[in-house]
Amino acid sequence: MSELFDKHGGFRKLHSFTLATIVQFETLRFCRRFLTFDHRQAGEKFYDPKGRQYDQMTQAARSGRQNIIEGSERSATSKDTEMKLTDVARASLGELRGDYEILIIDRDQLPWSVHSHEAKAVNAISLDTPPFSDDLVHESAKHALEQRKKYARWLDADDAVVVANAMLIIISRALNMLKSQIEAQGKAFEETGGFSERLMTKRIEAREKNLPPSPDCPLCNRAMRRRKSAKGEFWGCAEFPACKGTRPV
User: Fold this and answer.
1) Residues 6+ apart with CB under 8 A from 238
2) What residues contact residue 30 under an 8 Å CB cut-off, 6+ apart?
3) Residue 41 has pLDDT above 70, yes or no
4) Are 93 and 67 in contact (CB under 8 A)?
5) For residue 50, what pLDDT is reported?
6) By the 8 A CB rule, do 154 and 165 touch?
7) Torsions phi, psi for 223 (to 5 deg)
8) For a disulfide at 60, which of 35, 43, 96, 209, Cβ 3.0-4.6 Å?
9) Tens digits of residue pLDDT in 95-114
10) Against a cut of 0.85, is the pTM above it?
């Protein structure tokens, strides 16, 4: 008998979630440090009189992380919803990446080349496997902070451009991971179906428990199911339409 509900809620063990967590709290920190209502008095060029840039960046960072959570929790009953929410997470982080890119350009500089020493150094960082036991909220937060230390050299810099460049690379890594997750989710849906398909299978299994034993199909020797047509009831192969074997009731 097939399982009705998918396993769900394992998002805290995903590297994409760890990176999305780092992205969210580092975006909050970046905005507090570098995006005030008027930084011109401190010699900065950036000017955000109503704080809209601050709000949009922090909301995009939040959406990236929160939609990974919601998608994972919804996966028990809807693979389609899981894929859509994971894609929303990816789109939100993509939007945030664009904001960091523009912040760098606005300061008359260019994002690091992928061939630069700094970009290669950030990209070379690998994440540890989460050592979780039974205290997931506490341990996942601790894990994210531990992984953040690996990027501290750039994230703690006093230069907003250095921090923004590091964030561009971290976000890009998270985006690539989320793309792989969506592809894996689609493959799982193709192989096992979704909640609706499994619910129908469960109903058929429960109904057939109360029916007399079915004969074997005369064409493929597999089980048959009782079916109805305009001419009355008959036994039809359970593999229909792949197999069209029938028997009279």
Assistant:
1) 214, 217, 222, 223, 224, 225
2) 57, 160, 163, 164, 167
3) no
4) no
5) 60
6) yes
7) -65, 155
8) 96
9) 999 999 999 999 999 999 99
10) no
Side by side, which strands form the sheet with 246-248? 224-229, 232-237, 246-248
137: amino acid identity, one letter: V
The answer to whether 18 and 127 are in contact (CB under 8 A) is yes
Rounded Cα–Cα distance for residues 52 and 182 (Å): 31
End-to-end CA distance of the chain: 26
* Assigned token pair, 97: 């990446």
Average pLDDT score over residue span 135-150: 94
Share of the chain above pLDDT 90, in %: 55
**What's the token pair of residue 182?**
């969506």
Distances in Å between the alpha carbon of 10 and those of 40, 98, 129, 233?
45, 29, 13, 47
Q: Ramachandran region of residue 247, left (φ > 0), alpha (ψ -120 to 50) or beta?
A: beta
- Identify the helix (H) or strand (E) that includes residue 231: none
Q: In the structure encoding, which two tokens stand for residue 164, read together?
A: 């923004």
CB 207 within 8 A of CB 225: no
